Amino acid sequence: MKVLKGVVRPYAWGSRTAIAELQGRSAPSAHPEAELWFGAHPASPARLDGTPGDLLAVIDDDPAAALGTRTAAAFEGRLPFLVKVLAADEPLSLQAHPSSEQARVGFAAENAAGLAPDDPRRNYRDSWHKPEVVVALSDFEALAGFRDPAVTVELLRSLQVPGLDSALGMLVGAPDRDGLRAVFTTWLTLPEPVIATLVPQVLTGAIAALERGATPFADELRAVLELGEAYPNDPGVLAALLLNFVRLRPGEAIYLAAGNLHAYLRGSAVEAMANSDNVLRGGLTPKHIDVPELLRVLDFHPVSRAELMPDIQTVGAERIYLTPAPEFRLSRVELDGTALRAPASVSFDMPGPQILTVTAGRIEVAGPDGRRCTVRCGDALWLADSDPDVVVHAASAHAVFFRSRVPLTV
């Protein structure tokens, strides 16, 4: 077992305080800090504390010892999951991730077309899919999944914008995935002069609807106004009208399967995902948008907020977020050094690989051979398959960590 030092990714939408405070550094930071990566992704592998090496090199050196023979065989010698701490002060781009088959075919096609790995026109950086589960550390807001079209009809009518009449007609005539596809495709392909007229009209309608009061869509309208201010004349502002607004309290989660259109708006969270970097964008960004490929990937089936939330299984101090992803299983563990509010320790006898990411307090991890390792807030612990079973103790009055591992079904 080794302490992992995460790698900070400084995207413009990040926070200047959240990750710095998590790690006990002075805040605000000099630049926005958006993500803290703990994993073996080639772009930013986590470092092993006290050594010059990183986790990717350790796994490549002996995949069977690091991952176990079964996991190494199933995922071609790669650590199949990536863990991130996400800290958003501004909205992220509207995006979706491909299925395994779509990623495999798309990656091969772009390679055959001669696109360089860092070509900005690339949709596929690798041949893997990217399902993900997000567990809130703070109040966390997102847009995710296409809303029931009947409810969206009510929202669009409340705006009283004549320019939305054609979209209303599509959804009333086809209140299903076909209607959603038609409206989304129309909005994303509108000429720029039309967008430049329609988006301000929608924002004006949103302000008027909020001023009238007693609207069930206050959260949705405020989100659209925020996006319109940050991304004026962007068709993604219109697309946001079709999505569920989701607010998570700390400890609550959503699971995003392939094809789910989403945008994180604000807040801090722990995110576990398949170890991939495949993102297809649909707006709210100056980056490359491939509309035909995005339409091929998107799942337009309506989904409710409740359907986005994973089932939860509680085993002792461990709160497990159940998803169908074969690459990862994420759980939250809360320990109390006084053993009054929560257990003071927990035993893990499951095979690796595992990463324990500390988000509050400190933990001490002990093996049967007497080895002990203290992990502070903002760091993580790597447990290889070849490591022995461990006991995790609270090393402070209150400690919280997230356990990421491969499901036993692999």
SSE layout:
Elements (H helix, E strand, L loop, with lengths): L1 E4 L1 E3 L8 H5 L12 E4 L8 E2 L6 H7 L1 H5 L1 H6 L6 E8 L5 E3 L3 H13 L19 E5 L3 E7 L2 H11 L5 H9 L3 H12 L3 H21 L5 H13 L4 H5 L3 E6 L4 E4 L5 E13 L5 E4 L7 H7 L7 H4 L2 E5 L2 E5 L6 E8 L8 E4 L5 E7 L1 E5 L5 E5 L3 E4 L6 E5 L3 E8 L5
Helix pairs in contact: 7-8, 9-10
Residue-averaged pLDDT, rounded?
95
- Give helix % range: 25-40%
What is the total number of structural domains?
3
- Category by helix and strand content: alpha+beta
Total number of beta strands:
22
- What is the name of the CATH architecture of the largest domain? Sandwich
Ends apart, CA distance between termini: 22 Å
Q: Which CATH top level class of the largest domain fits?
A: Mainly Beta
Q: Major β-sheet, in short?
A: 8 strands, antiparallel
Under CATH, the topology of the largest domain can be stated as Jelly Rolls
What general outline do the C-alpha atoms trace? Answer: globular
Number of helical segments with 4 or more residues: 13
CATH superfamily of the largest domain: Jelly Rolls
Strand content: 25-35%
Which strand order spans the largest sheet, edge to edge or round the barrel? 4-1-20-17-22-15-14-13
Q: Which residue ranges are poorly predicted, with pLDDT under 50 across at least 5 consecutive positions?
A: none
| Rg, alpha carbons | 22 Å
Q: What labels describe this entry?
A:
410 residues; alpha+beta; Jelly Rolls; Phosphomannose Isomerase, domain 2; 3 domains; eight-stranded antiparallel β-sheet; 29% helix; globular
